[in-house]
């Protein structure tokens, strides 16, 4: 078992180091993206334009040697452009027949670039495939290849020309990660990397089979009952009106996390434990995963927005108020 844990840790470290050749200053983001990918979850990356969200996803696909497709979401994009459609073709006898032309969602890793630029009708085309890893078109359900992930990027919702994602779609993302502006030193390194003559290209480190193997190892990590109960109480405390709910939640939250939030906490904590070289989940693992797993599942009231509160502020209050 120690060899499996060390092998898992070394493999993930190699992947992180390879991605870091093309990405600077986002080590925490890279780690959480890998946690979600190994767990089999989808990721929503939010940040202003130019921070490298798209570059991160493309680099990840290259390092993991996965089939990769990119969808550029725009207001005129239609659902058929995403999932595919039936087209009229000639068969061997010269007869006209309908043939399904798969859309870009039929891939291992799908980049939904600027997902909040498309209309809600087009956004909803991803609902089935994100949850069930299948696409239904013209009455026929087709499976997508495994492993399968949707990594979406979006600009902050307060910018012009965007459509807020519906709650049902937000809930299908395992993590929501926030990309901050780099520091002065990181900005200088980014400019050197992207404008100099020398190219730093990330190479292939893993493949689909290895990724599925890592997922299987993570699923075996045990979690003690007190740690499990702690994670479940964190999720329950995101809901206002309960006896144990913190005051900040009652004051600022309209409604809290779904059961998917608890699933994301446990799955992510198992992977993080292995990354840290442990075959058991700790309370710190749960607390680390709480922010990316719950920040898009805690919906704030108007009062919270007007006072400048963020979901992370509320999650911090929940963590403080929830005893181990």
Give an overview of the whole structure.
The chain has 324 residues and is α/β, with parallel strands linked by helices. It has two domains: 176 residues, Rossmann fold; 101 residues, Magnesium chelatase subunit I, C-Terminal domain (Helicase, Ruva Protein, domain 3, Orthogonal Bundle). The protein contains 15 helices and eleven strands. A five-stranded parallel beta sheet has the order 2-5-8-1-9. The protein has a two-stranded antiparallel sheet with strand order 3-4. A two-stranded antiparallel sheet has the order 6-7. The longest helix is centred in the first third of the chain and has 18 residues. The model has no long low-confidence stretch (mean pLDDT 89).
How confident overall, as mean pLDDT? 89
The number of domains is 2
Q: Quote the beta fraction.
A: 15-25%
Output the CATH topology of the largest domain: Rossmann fold
Would you state the CATH class of the largest domain? Alpha Beta
Net shape: globular
């Amino acid at each position: 078992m120690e060899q499996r844990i060390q092998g898992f840790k070394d493999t993930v470290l190699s992947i992180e180091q390879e991605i870091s050749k093309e990405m600077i200053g986002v080590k925490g983001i890279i780690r959480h993206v890998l946690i979600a990918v190994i767990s089999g979850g989808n990721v929503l990356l939010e940040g202003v334009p130019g921070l490298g969200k798209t570059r991160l996803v493309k680099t990840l696909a290259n390092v993991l040697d996965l089939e990769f497709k990119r969808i550029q979401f725009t207001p005129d994009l239609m659902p058929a452009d995403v999932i595919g459609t039936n087209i009229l073709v000639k068969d061997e006898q010269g007869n006209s027949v309908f043939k399904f032309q798969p859309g870009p969602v039929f891939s291992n890793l799908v980049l939904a670039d600027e997902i909040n630029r498309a209309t809600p009708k087009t956004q909803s085309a991803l609902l089935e495939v994100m949850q069930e890893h299948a696409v239904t078109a013209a009455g026929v359900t087709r499976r997508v290849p495994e492993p399968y992930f949707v990594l979406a990027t979006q600009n902050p919702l307060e910018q012009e020309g965007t459509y807020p994602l519906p709650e049902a779609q937000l809930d299908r993302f395992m993590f929501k990660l926030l990309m901050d502006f780099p520091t002065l030193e990181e900005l200088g390194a980014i400019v050197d990397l992207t404008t100099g003559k020398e190219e730093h290209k990330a190479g292939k480190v893993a493949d689909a089979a290895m990724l599925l193997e890592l997922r299987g190892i993570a699923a075996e990590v045990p979690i003690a009952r007190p740690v499990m109960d702690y994670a479940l109480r964190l999720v329950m405390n995101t809901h206002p009106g309960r006896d144990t709910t913190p005051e900040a939640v009652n004051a600022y939250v309209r409604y809290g996390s779904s059961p998917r939030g608890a699933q994301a906490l446990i799955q992510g904590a198992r992977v993080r434990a292995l990354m840290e070289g442990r075959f058991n989940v700790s309370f710190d693992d749960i607390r680390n995963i709480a922010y990316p797993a719950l920040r898009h599942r805690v919906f704030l009231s108007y009062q919270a927005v007007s006072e400048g509160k963020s979901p992370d502020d509320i999650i911090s209050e929940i963590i403080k108020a929830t005893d181990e």
